[in-house]
Design goal:
heterodimer; A: alpha+beta; 2 domains; 9 helices; 69% helix; B: alpha/beta; Rossmann fold; 10 strands
Protein backbone atom coordinates (compact mmCIF):
# COMPACT_ATOMS: atom_id res chain seq x y z
CA UNK A 1 0.00 0.00 0.00
CA UNK A 2 1.31 3.44 -0.93
CA UNK A 3 2.39 5.80 1.86
CA UNK A 4 -0.33 8.29 0.86
CA UNK A 5 -2.95 5.54 1.14
CA UNK A 6 -1.65 4.60 4.59
CA UNK A 7 -2.05 8.22 5.59
CA UNK A 8 -5.61 8.14 4.27
CA UNK A 9 -6.36 4.96 6.25
CA UNK A 10 -4.97 6.45 9.47
CA UNK A 11 -6.97 9.66 8.98
CA UNK A 12 -10.13 7.58 8.55
CA UNK A 13 -9.32 5.50 11.63
CA UNK A 14 -8.79 8.66 13.68
CA UNK A 15 -12.09 10.15 12.50
CA UNK A 16 -13.99 6.89 12.99
CA UNK A 17 -12.63 6.33 16.50
CA UNK A 18 -13.62 9.87 17.41
CA UNK A 19 -17.08 9.46 15.88
CA UNK A 20 -17.93 6.36 17.96
CA UNK A 21 -15.58 7.09 20.85
CA UNK A 22 -17.74 5.71 23.67
CA UNK A 23 -18.58 2.51 21.81
CA UNK A 24 -14.90 1.93 21.12
CA UNK A 25 -13.96 2.73 24.73
CA UNK A 26 -16.56 0.30 26.07
CA UNK A 27 -15.27 -2.42 23.77
CA UNK A 28 -11.67 -1.76 24.78
CA UNK A 29 -12.88 -1.90 28.42
CA UNK A 30 -14.47 -5.31 27.79
CA UNK A 31 -11.25 -6.57 26.24
CA UNK A 32 -9.37 -5.18 29.25
CA UNK A 33 -11.62 -6.99 31.76
CA UNK A 34 -11.41 -10.27 29.84
CA UNK A 35 -7.64 -10.12 29.63
CA UNK A 36 -7.41 -8.95 33.26
CA UNK A 37 -9.21 -12.12 34.40
CA UNK A 38 -7.12 -14.27 32.06
CA UNK A 39 -3.95 -12.46 33.13
CA UNK A 40 -4.95 -13.04 36.77
CA UNK A 41 -4.92 -16.79 36.14
CA UNK A 42 -1.55 -16.50 34.41
CA UNK A 43 -0.26 -14.48 37.39
CA UNK A 44 -1.51 -17.13 39.84
CA UNK A 45 -0.06 -19.93 37.75
CA UNK A 46 3.36 -18.28 37.49
CA UNK A 47 3.56 -17.74 41.24
CA UNK A 48 2.34 -21.23 42.11
CA UNK A 49 4.90 -22.68 39.73
CA UNK A 50 7.49 -20.58 41.50
CA UNK A 51 6.25 -21.98 44.80
CA UNK A 52 6.43 -25.49 43.42
CA UNK A 53 9.97 -24.86 42.20
CA UNK A 54 10.92 -23.47 45.62
CA UNK A 55 9.54 -26.60 47.25
CA UNK A 56 11.36 -28.70 44.72
CA UNK A 57 14.61 -27.09 45.79
CA UNK A 58 13.83 -28.26 49.28
CA UNK A 59 12.85 -31.77 48.32
CA UNK A 60 14.97 -34.26 50.09
CA UNK A 61 14.53 -37.83 51.12
CA UNK A 62 15.22 -38.61 54.74
CA UNK A 63 16.49 -42.11 55.32
CA UNK A 64 16.47 -43.22 58.99
CA UNK A 65 19.17 -45.79 59.68
CA UNK A 66 18.97 -48.96 61.74
CA UNK A 67 20.45 -48.49 65.19
CA UNK A 68 22.92 -51.32 64.65
CA UNK A 69 24.68 -49.64 61.70
CA UNK A 70 28.29 -48.75 62.45
CA UNK A 71 30.29 -45.73 61.30
CA UNK A 72 32.12 -47.60 58.51
CA UNK A 73 28.89 -48.99 57.10
CA UNK A 74 27.39 -45.49 57.16
CA UNK A 75 30.36 -44.08 55.19
CA UNK A 76 30.08 -46.89 52.67
CA UNK A 77 26.31 -46.33 52.35
CA UNK A 78 26.81 -42.56 51.85
CA UNK A 79 29.30 -43.24 49.05
CA UNK A 80 26.94 -45.69 47.36
CA UNK A 81 24.02 -43.29 47.51
CA UNK A 82 26.13 -40.35 46.29
CA UNK A 83 26.93 -42.44 43.24
CA UNK A 84 23.22 -42.57 42.27
CA UNK A 85 22.71 -40.31 39.19
CA UNK A 86 19.67 -38.58 40.74
CA UNK A 87 21.43 -37.64 43.99
CA UNK A 88 22.98 -34.22 44.45
CA UNK A 89 24.44 -34.68 47.94
CA UNK A 90 24.02 -36.74 51.09
CA UNK A 91 24.28 -35.36 54.61
CA UNK A 92 24.73 -37.71 57.50
CA UNK A 93 23.19 -36.83 60.87
CA UNK A 94 24.48 -39.02 63.66
CA UNK A 95 22.37 -40.06 66.68
CA UNK A 96 24.36 -37.59 68.76
CA UNK A 97 23.72 -34.76 66.27
CA UNK A 98 20.02 -35.66 66.00
CA UNK A 99 19.77 -35.49 69.81
CA UNK A 100 21.43 -32.04 69.88
CA UNK A 101 19.27 -30.72 67.03
CA UNK A 102 16.11 -31.96 68.73
CA UNK A 103 17.11 -30.36 71.99
CA UNK A 104 17.73 -27.02 70.29
CA UNK A 105 14.38 -27.32 68.53
CA UNK A 106 12.60 -27.90 71.84
CA UNK A 107 14.28 -24.84 73.36
CA UNK A 108 12.94 -24.16 76.88
CA UNK A 109 11.07 -27.48 76.79
CA UNK A 110 14.33 -29.43 76.34
CA UNK A 111 14.13 -30.61 79.95
CA UNK A 112 11.53 -33.10 78.74
CA UNK A 113 14.38 -35.13 77.27
CA UNK A 114 16.14 -35.53 80.59
CA UNK A 115 16.32 -39.15 81.53
CA UNK A 116 15.87 -40.44 78.01
CA UNK A 117 18.74 -42.41 76.42
CA UNK A 118 20.60 -40.49 73.70
CA UNK A 119 20.15 -43.40 71.28
CA UNK A 120 16.39 -42.89 71.24
CA UNK A 121 16.67 -40.84 68.05
CA UNK A 122 17.98 -42.70 65.00
CA UNK A 123 20.84 -41.54 62.79
CA UNK A 124 19.68 -40.38 59.39
CA UNK A 125 20.77 -39.42 55.90
CA UNK A 126 19.31 -36.30 54.22
CA UNK A 127 19.47 -36.99 50.49
CA UNK A 128 19.12 -33.97 48.18
CA UNK A 129 17.98 -34.68 44.63
CA UNK A 130 19.28 -33.02 41.48
CA UNK A 131 16.78 -30.50 40.04
CA UNK A 132 16.38 -32.49 36.83
CA UNK A 133 15.09 -35.51 38.79
CA UNK A 134 12.68 -33.83 41.18
CA UNK A 135 9.44 -34.90 39.56
CA UNK A 136 7.16 -37.42 41.27
CA UNK A 137 7.97 -40.78 39.62
CA UNK A 138 11.76 -40.38 39.86
CA UNK A 139 11.62 -39.50 43.56
CA UNK A 140 9.31 -42.46 44.11
CA UNK A 141 11.68 -44.85 42.27
CA UNK A 142 14.70 -43.54 44.17
CA UNK A 143 12.87 -44.04 47.46
CA UNK A 144 12.09 -47.66 46.47
CA UNK A 145 15.76 -48.29 45.64
CA UNK A 146 16.87 -46.78 48.95
CA UNK A 147 14.42 -49.02 50.83
CA UNK A 148 16.37 -52.02 49.51
CA UNK A 149 19.50 -50.89 51.39
CA UNK A 150 19.70 -53.05 54.52
CA UNK A 151 21.14 -50.20 56.61
CA UNK A 152 18.01 -48.08 56.06
CA UNK A 153 15.00 -48.62 58.30
CA UNK A 154 12.50 -45.94 57.20
CA UNK A 155 12.25 -43.60 54.20
CA UNK A 156 10.34 -40.28 54.35
CA UNK A 157 9.71 -37.78 51.55
CA UNK A 158 7.03 -35.04 50.96
CA UNK A 159 5.64 -36.64 47.82
CA UNK A 160 1.95 -36.08 48.55
CA UNK A 161 2.25 -32.32 48.95
CA UNK A 162 4.26 -31.93 45.79
CA UNK A 163 1.77 -33.97 43.81
CA UNK A 164 -1.16 -32.03 45.25
CA UNK A 165 0.37 -28.65 44.45
CA UNK A 166 1.24 -29.92 40.99
CA UNK A 167 -2.43 -30.83 40.51
CA UNK A 168 -3.53 -27.37 41.72
CA UNK A 169 -1.21 -25.70 39.19
CA UNK A 170 -2.55 -28.00 36.46
CA UNK A 171 -6.13 -27.11 37.52
CA UNK A 172 -5.35 -23.40 37.32
CA UNK A 173 -3.80 -23.84 33.91
CA UNK A 174 -6.95 -25.60 32.67
CA UNK A 175 -9.24 -23.06 34.34
CA UNK A 176 -7.24 -20.28 32.67
CA UNK A 177 -7.96 -21.66 29.21
CA UNK A 178 -11.57 -22.68 29.91
CA UNK A 179 -12.59 -19.37 31.52
CA UNK A 180 -10.36 -17.51 29.13
CA UNK A 181 -11.85 -19.34 26.14
CA UNK A 182 -15.42 -18.44 27.12
CA UNK A 183 -14.44 -14.83 27.78
CA UNK A 184 -12.48 -14.63 24.54
CA UNK A 185 -15.50 -15.85 22.57
CA UNK A 186 -17.72 -13.25 24.25
CA UNK A 187 -15.18 -10.49 23.62
CA UNK A 188 -14.72 -11.60 20.03
CA UNK A 189 -18.45 -11.18 19.39
CA UNK A 190 -18.52 -7.82 21.20
CA UNK A 191 -15.73 -6.55 18.96
CA UNK A 192 -17.51 -7.95 15.91
CA UNK A 193 -20.69 -6.11 16.98
CA UNK A 194 -18.81 -2.84 17.53
CA UNK A 195 -17.26 -3.07 14.09
CA UNK A 196 -20.67 -3.87 12.62
CA UNK A 197 -22.14 -0.84 14.40
CA UNK A 198 -19.34 1.24 12.95
CA UNK A 199 -20.07 -0.05 9.47
CA UNK A 200 -23.80 0.52 9.79
CA UNK A 201 -23.13 4.07 11.00
CA UNK A 202 -20.90 4.61 7.99
CA UNK A 203 -22.86 2.86 5.24
CA UNK A 204 -23.05 6.08 3.23
CA UNK A 205 -19.34 6.58 3.56
CA UNK A 206 -18.64 3.01 2.40
CA UNK A 207 -20.94 3.47 -0.59
CA UNK A 208 -19.33 6.78 -1.57
CA UNK A 209 -15.84 5.38 -1.13
CA UNK A 210 -16.59 2.49 -3.45
CA UNK A 211 -18.14 4.86 -5.99
CA UNK A 212 -15.04 7.05 -6.09
CA UNK A 213 -12.80 4.04 -6.71
CA UNK A 214 -11.61 2.88 -3.30
CA UNK A 215 -10.45 -0.72 -3.40
CA UNK A 216 -11.98 -3.34 -1.13
CA UNK A 217 -8.77 -3.43 0.93
CA UNK A 218 -8.79 0.34 1.37
CA UNK A 219 -12.40 0.30 2.56
CA UNK A 220 -11.83 -2.58 4.96
CA UNK A 221 -8.40 -1.65 6.34
CA UNK A 222 -9.63 1.08 8.74
CA UNK A 223 -12.22 -1.26 10.27
CA UNK A 224 -9.64 -3.99 10.85
CA UNK A 225 -7.24 -1.44 12.28
CA UNK A 226 -9.95 -0.14 14.62
CA UNK A 227 -10.55 -3.69 15.90
CA UNK A 228 -6.82 -4.20 16.41
CA UNK A 229 -6.53 -0.88 18.25
CA UNK A 230 -9.42 -1.85 20.53
CA UNK A 231 -7.76 -5.20 21.26
CA UNK A 232 -4.30 -3.80 21.91
CA UNK A 233 -5.58 -0.87 23.99
CA UNK A 234 -7.71 -3.32 26.01
CA UNK A 235 -4.70 -5.60 26.53
CA UNK A 236 -2.56 -2.65 27.63
CA UNK A 237 -5.22 -1.53 30.12
CA UNK A 238 -5.43 -5.10 31.47
CA UNK A 239 -1.65 -5.16 31.98
CA UNK A 240 -1.83 -1.83 33.81
CA UNK A 241 -4.62 -3.18 36.06
CA UNK A 242 -2.64 -6.35 36.74
CA UNK A 243 0.38 -4.22 37.67
CA UNK A 244 -1.74 -2.19 40.10
CA UNK A 245 -3.09 -5.43 41.62
CA UNK A 246 0.46 -6.75 41.91
CA UNK A 247 1.59 -3.59 43.71
CA UNK A 248 -1.35 -3.84 46.13
CA UNK A 249 -0.45 -7.48 46.86
CA UNK A 250 3.19 -6.55 47.40
CA UNK A 251 2.24 -3.90 49.94
CA UNK A 252 -0.26 -6.07 51.79
CA UNK A 253 0.76 -8.62 54.42
CA UNK A 254 0.27 -12.04 52.89
CA UNK A 255 -0.35 -14.75 55.48
CA UNK A 256 2.69 -17.00 55.78
CA UNK A 257 0.50 -20.07 56.43
CA UNK A 258 2.96 -21.37 58.95
CA UNK A 259 5.90 -21.19 56.58
CA UNK A 260 3.88 -22.84 53.78
CA UNK A 261 4.66 -19.99 51.43
CA UNK A 262 8.26 -19.49 52.52
CA UNK A 263 9.79 -20.80 49.28
CA UNK A 264 7.71 -18.31 47.32
CA UNK A 265 9.65 -15.38 48.73
CA UNK A 266 8.40 -12.27 46.94
CA UNK A 267 5.51 -12.73 44.51
CA UNK A 268 6.39 -12.16 40.89
CA UNK A 269 4.70 -10.10 38.18
CA UNK A 270 4.03 -11.56 34.72
CA UNK A 271 7.16 -12.30 32.74
CA UNK A 272 7.75 -10.78 29.29
CA UNK A 273 6.39 -13.85 27.50
CA UNK A 274 3.10 -13.68 29.42
CA UNK A 275 2.78 -9.93 28.79
CA UNK A 276 3.46 -10.56 25.11
CA UNK A 277 0.82 -13.31 25.17
CA UNK A 278 -1.81 -10.92 26.58
CA UNK A 279 -0.99 -8.28 23.96
CA UNK A 280 -1.04 -10.90 21.21
CA UNK A 281 -4.43 -12.21 22.36
CA UNK A 282 -5.79 -8.64 22.42
CA UNK A 283 -4.43 -8.02 18.94
CA UNK A 284 -5.83 -11.33 17.66
CA UNK A 285 -9.27 -10.79 19.21
CA UNK A 286 -9.48 -7.34 17.64
CA UNK A 287 -8.34 -8.45 14.21
CA UNK A 288 -10.45 -11.63 14.16
CA UNK A 289 -13.58 -9.88 15.50
CA UNK A 290 -13.42 -7.11 12.92
CA UNK A 291 -12.56 -9.41 10.00
CA UNK A 292 -15.43 -11.75 10.89
CA UNK A 293 -17.84 -8.83 11.04
CA UNK A 294 -16.52 -7.29 7.82
CA UNK A 295 -16.88 -10.50 5.85
CA UNK A 296 -20.47 -10.96 6.90
CA UNK A 297 -21.30 -7.32 6.27
CA UNK A 298 -19.70 -7.30 2.83
CA UNK A 299 -21.43 -10.53 1.83
CA UNK A 300 -24.80 -8.95 2.70
CA UNK A 301 -23.79 -5.67 1.06
CA UNK A 302 -22.73 -7.30 -2.19
CA UNK A 303 -25.95 -9.27 -2.30
CA UNK A 304 -28.10 -6.16 -1.80
CA UNK A 305 -26.19 -3.38 -3.58
CA UNK A 306 -23.93 -4.93 -6.14
CA UNK A 307 -20.17 -5.07 -6.25
CA UNK A 308 -18.20 -3.44 -3.42
CA UNK B 1 -14.36 5.32 -26.03
CA UNK B 2 -17.47 3.43 -24.90
CA UNK B 3 -18.71 0.42 -26.84
CA UNK B 4 -21.66 -1.75 -25.90
CA UNK B 5 -22.28 -4.95 -27.85
CA UNK B 6 -25.67 -6.67 -27.41
CA UNK B 7 -25.82 -5.71 -23.77
CA UNK B 8 -28.77 -6.96 -21.72
CA UNK B 9 -29.46 -6.84 -18.02
CA UNK B 10 -31.98 -9.00 -16.19
CA UNK B 11 -32.62 -8.60 -12.48
CA UNK B 12 -33.88 -11.57 -10.50
CA UNK B 13 -36.33 -13.12 -10.63
CA UNK B 14 -37.08 -12.12 -14.19
CA UNK B 15 -37.07 -8.33 -14.68
CA UNK B 16 -35.50 -7.34 -18.00
CA UNK B 17 -34.07 -3.84 -17.41
CA UNK B 18 -32.07 -3.61 -20.65
CA UNK B 19 -32.41 -5.55 -23.87
CA UNK B 20 -29.77 -5.99 -26.57
CA UNK B 21 -28.18 -2.54 -26.45
CA UNK B 22 -25.63 -1.73 -29.13
CA UNK B 23 -24.06 1.67 -28.63
CA UNK B 24 -20.85 3.51 -29.35
CA UNK B 25 -19.84 6.81 -27.76
CA UNK B 26 -16.74 8.60 -29.00
CA UNK B 27 -14.13 10.35 -26.93
CA UNK B 28 -15.14 13.94 -26.12
CA UNK B 29 -18.80 13.39 -26.96
CA UNK B 30 -21.65 14.78 -24.85
CA UNK B 31 -24.50 12.28 -24.76
CA UNK B 32 -27.89 12.50 -23.14
CA UNK B 33 -29.37 9.18 -22.12
CA UNK B 34 -33.05 10.01 -22.28
CA UNK B 35 -36.27 8.21 -21.61
CA UNK B 36 -39.09 7.97 -19.11
CA UNK B 37 -38.63 6.59 -15.61
CA UNK B 38 -37.93 2.86 -15.73
CA UNK B 39 -36.54 3.03 -19.28
CA UNK B 40 -33.17 1.67 -18.09
CA UNK B 41 -31.06 4.88 -18.05
CA UNK B 42 -29.70 4.42 -14.55
CA UNK B 43 -29.12 0.71 -15.13
CA UNK B 44 -27.08 1.54 -18.23
CA UNK B 45 -24.98 4.00 -16.24
CA UNK B 46 -24.52 1.42 -13.48
CA UNK B 47 -23.23 -1.04 -16.06
CA UNK B 48 -20.74 1.56 -17.27
CA UNK B 49 -19.27 2.21 -13.82
CA UNK B 50 -19.69 -1.46 -12.98
CA UNK B 51 -22.05 -1.28 -10.06
CA UNK B 52 -23.91 -3.93 -12.03
CA UNK B 53 -22.64 -6.63 -14.38
CA UNK B 54 -24.41 -7.15 -17.69
CA UNK B 55 -26.32 -10.43 -17.98
CA UNK B 56 -25.36 -10.68 -21.64
CA UNK B 57 -23.11 -8.79 -24.04
CA UNK B 58 -19.82 -6.97 -23.80
CA UNK B 59 -18.84 -3.47 -22.63
CA UNK B 60 -15.56 -1.87 -23.66
CA UNK B 61 -14.37 1.39 -22.11
CA UNK B 62 -11.29 2.97 -23.61
CA UNK B 63 -10.62 -0.33 -25.40
CA UNK B 64 -10.73 -2.38 -22.20
CA UNK B 65 -13.38 -5.01 -21.66
CA UNK B 66 -15.06 -4.17 -18.37
CA UNK B 67 -17.81 -6.79 -18.61
CA UNK B 68 -16.23 -9.07 -16.02
CA UNK B 69 -13.88 -7.37 -13.60
CA UNK B 70 -12.59 -8.41 -10.20
CA UNK B 71 -13.12 -5.91 -7.36
CA UNK B 72 -9.63 -4.44 -7.80
CA UNK B 73 -10.34 -3.88 -11.50
CA UNK B 74 -13.67 -2.21 -10.67
CA UNK B 75 -11.88 0.15 -8.27
CA UNK B 76 -9.28 1.03 -10.91
CA UNK B 77 -12.01 1.66 -13.51
CA UNK B 78 -13.91 3.96 -11.16
CA UNK B 79 -10.78 6.00 -10.50
CA UNK B 80 -10.90 6.97 -14.18
CA UNK B 81 -14.60 7.83 -14.14
CA UNK B 82 -16.24 10.84 -12.48
CA UNK B 83 -19.70 10.18 -11.09
CA UNK B 84 -22.40 12.76 -10.39
CA UNK B 85 -25.73 11.84 -8.82
CA UNK B 86 -29.00 13.67 -8.29
CA UNK B 87 -28.61 13.38 -4.51
CA UNK B 88 -24.96 14.55 -4.62
CA UNK B 89 -23.73 11.80 -2.27
CA UNK B 90 -21.40 14.02 -0.26
CA UNK B 91 -20.10 12.99 3.14
CA UNK B 92 -21.64 15.21 5.80
CA UNK B 93 -18.78 14.78 8.28
CA UNK B 94 -16.11 15.91 5.81
CA UNK B 95 -15.49 19.47 4.71
CA UNK B 96 -16.17 20.56 1.13
CA UNK B 97 -12.44 20.40 0.39
CA UNK B 98 -12.13 16.89 1.84
CA UNK B 99 -15.15 15.72 -0.14
CA UNK B 100 -13.70 17.01 -3.39
CA UNK B 101 -10.29 15.49 -2.60
CA UNK B 102 -11.73 12.06 -1.71
CA UNK B 103 -11.29 10.34 -5.13
CA UNK B 104 -7.71 11.64 -5.31
CA UNK B 105 -7.04 10.35 -1.80
CA UNK B 106 -8.29 6.86 -2.62
CA UNK B 107 -6.28 6.87 -5.85
CA UNK B 108 -3.12 7.31 -3.75
CA UNK B 109 -2.41 11.01 -4.30
CA UNK B 110 -0.59 12.68 -1.41
CA UNK B 111 -2.73 14.72 0.97
CA UNK B 112 -1.04 17.98 -0.01
CA UNK B 113 -1.45 17.33 -3.73
CA UNK B 114 -5.08 16.23 -3.47
CA UNK B 115 -6.00 19.27 -1.34
CA UNK B 116 -4.26 21.65 -3.74
CA UNK B 117 -6.07 20.13 -6.70
CA UNK B 118 -9.41 20.16 -4.90
CA UNK B 119 -8.93 23.80 -3.93
CA UNK B 120 -8.13 24.76 -7.52
CA UNK B 121 -11.34 23.12 -8.71
CA UNK B 122 -13.37 24.86 -6.01
CA UNK B 123 -11.84 28.17 -7.06
CA UNK B 124 -12.74 27.52 -10.72
CA UNK B 125 -16.32 26.74 -9.70
CA UNK B 126 -16.59 29.82 -7.46
CA UNK B 127 -16.77 27.81 -4.25
CA UNK B 128 -13.39 28.54 -2.69
CA UNK B 129 -14.97 30.48 0.23
CA UNK B 130 -16.79 27.32 1.22
CA UNK B 131 -13.77 25.00 1.20
CA UNK B 132 -13.84 24.55 4.98
CA UNK B 133 -17.63 24.33 5.30
CA UNK B 134 -19.61 21.16 5.78
CA UNK B 135 -21.87 20.21 2.82
CA UNK B 136 -25.06 20.64 4.84
CA UNK B 137 -24.36 24.36 5.18
CA UNK B 138 -24.46 24.79 1.37
CA UNK B 139 -27.43 25.27 -0.95
CA UNK B 140 -28.57 22.43 -3.22
CA UNK B 141 -26.91 24.00 -6.25
CA UNK B 142 -23.65 24.52 -4.41
CA UNK B 143 -23.69 20.92 -3.23
CA UNK B 144 -24.14 19.73 -6.79
CA UNK B 145 -21.19 21.88 -7.90
CA UNK B 146 -19.12 20.29 -5.12
CA UNK B 147 -20.17 16.84 -6.40
CA UNK B 148 -19.08 17.85 -9.93
CA UNK B 149 -15.77 19.12 -8.58
CA UNK B 150 -15.31 15.77 -6.85
CA UNK B 151 -16.03 13.98 -10.13
CA UNK B 152 -13.30 16.00 -11.85
CA UNK B 153 -10.51 15.82 -9.31
CA UNK B 154 -8.84 12.77 -10.88
CA UNK B 155 -9.03 14.26 -14.42
CA UNK B 156 -11.42 11.50 -15.53
CA UNK B 157 -11.68 10.32 -19.12
CA UNK B 158 -15.42 9.94 -18.62
CA UNK B 159 -18.06 11.67 -16.48
CA UNK B 160 -21.33 9.84 -15.84
CA UNK B 161 -24.15 11.93 -14.40
CA UNK B 162 -27.46 10.48 -13.27
CA UNK B 163 -30.17 13.17 -13.24
CA UNK B 164 -27.64 15.77 -12.05
CA UNK B 165 -30.13 18.65 -12.21
CA UNK B 166 -33.15 16.77 -10.89
CA UNK B 167 -33.25 18.63 -7.57
CA UNK B 168 -32.09 22.03 -8.78
CA UNK B 169 -33.85 25.29 -9.70
CA UNK B 170 -33.88 26.12 -13.41
CA UNK B 171 -31.11 28.73 -13.11
CA UNK B 172 -28.82 26.47 -11.10
CA UNK B 173 -29.61 23.55 -13.41
CA UNK B 174 -28.58 25.71 -16.38
CA UNK B 175 -25.34 26.65 -14.65
CA UNK B 176 -24.62 23.00 -13.90
CA UNK B 177 -25.22 21.98 -17.50
CA UNK B 178 -23.02 24.77 -18.83
CA UNK B 179 -20.29 23.53 -16.49
CA UNK B 180 -20.62 19.99 -17.86
CA UNK B 181 -20.31 21.30 -21.42
CA UNK B 182 -17.21 23.21 -20.42
CA UNK B 183 -15.72 20.00 -19.09
CA UNK B 184 -16.61 18.26 -22.36
CA UNK B 185 -14.81 21.04 -24.23
CA UNK B 186 -11.60 19.99 -22.47
CA UNK B 187 -11.92 16.53 -24.06
CA UNK B 188 -13.78 14.59 -21.38
CA UNK B 189 -16.61 12.32 -22.51
CA UNK B 190 -19.86 13.14 -20.73
CA UNK B 191 -22.92 10.90 -20.43
CA UNK B 192 -25.93 12.44 -18.68
CA UNK B 193 -29.03 10.39 -17.86
CA UNK B 194 -32.15 12.53 -17.71
CA UNK B 195 -35.87 12.41 -18.31
CA UNK B 196 -36.08 16.21 -18.64
CA UNK B 197 -37.02 16.78 -22.28
CA UNK B 198 -36.85 20.57 -21.93
CA UNK B 199 -33.26 20.33 -20.92
CA UNK B 200 -32.49 17.96 -23.79
CA UNK B 201 -34.13 20.37 -26.22
CA UNK B 202 -32.07 23.22 -24.82
CA UNK B 203 -28.73 21.44 -24.83
CA UNK B 204 -29.22 18.25 -26.77
CA UNK B 205 -26.20 17.28 -28.76
CA UNK B 206 -26.51 13.56 -29.10
CA UNK B 207 -29.54 11.95 -27.52
CA UNK B 208 -29.77 8.22 -26.95
CA UNK B 209 -33.40 7.40 -26.26
CA UNK B 210 -34.27 4.36 -24.20
CA UNK B 211 -37.73 2.88 -23.88
CA UNK B 212 -38.60 -0.14 -21.79
CA UNK B 213 -34.97 -1.14 -21.69
CA UNK B 214 -34.41 -1.02 -25.43
CA UNK B 215 -32.59 1.51 -27.59
CA UNK B 216 -35.44 3.45 -29.23
CA UNK B 217 -33.52 6.19 -31.02
CA UNK B 218 -30.11 7.78 -31.40
CA UNK B 219 -30.41 11.43 -32.45
CA UNK B 220 -27.68 13.92 -33.16
CA UNK B 221 -29.01 17.43 -32.58
CA UNK B 222 -27.20 20.69 -33.01
CA UNK B 223 -27.09 22.06 -29.52
CA UNK B 224 -27.34 25.67 -28.53
CA UNK B 225 -23.96 25.23 -26.91
CA UNK B 226 -22.39 24.07 -30.15
CA UNK B 227 -24.21 26.44 -32.43
CA UNK B 228 -23.24 29.36 -30.23
CA UNK B 229 -19.52 28.59 -30.62
Amino acid sequence: MKLALLGFVFRRVRNNLWQLLWTHLLTAGTVAMTLYIFGGFVFLEINLRQLLKGWGDQIQITAYLNKSVGEKEVQSLVKRIEAFPEVERVRHTSQEQAWRDFKIALGSQSGLLDGLPREVLPASLEISIKSAHRDGPVVEQLAQRLKQEKEIAIIEYPQDWIERLGLIVLGIEWAKWIFGGVLFMATYFIIASTVKLGMLARQDEIEILQLVGASEDLIQAPFVLEGVIQGVVGATISLALLWVTYQILLRSELPSLGGFLTPLGQIQFLDLTSMGLLLAIGWLLGAAGSLFSLRRFIRTWNASRGQL
Amino acid sequence: MIQLFHVSKTFPPNYRALTDIDLEINKGEFVFLAGPSGAGKSTLLKLLFRQEEPSEGQILIDGKNVTRLASRGVARLRQKIGLVFQECKLLANLTVLENVALPADVAGMSKKESRTKAYQLLRELGLKEHYDSKPLSLSGGERQLVAIARALVNDPMLVLADEPTGNLDADIADETMRLLFKIRDKGTTIVVATHDLNMINRYGTRVVLLQRGALADDLRLASRQESSK
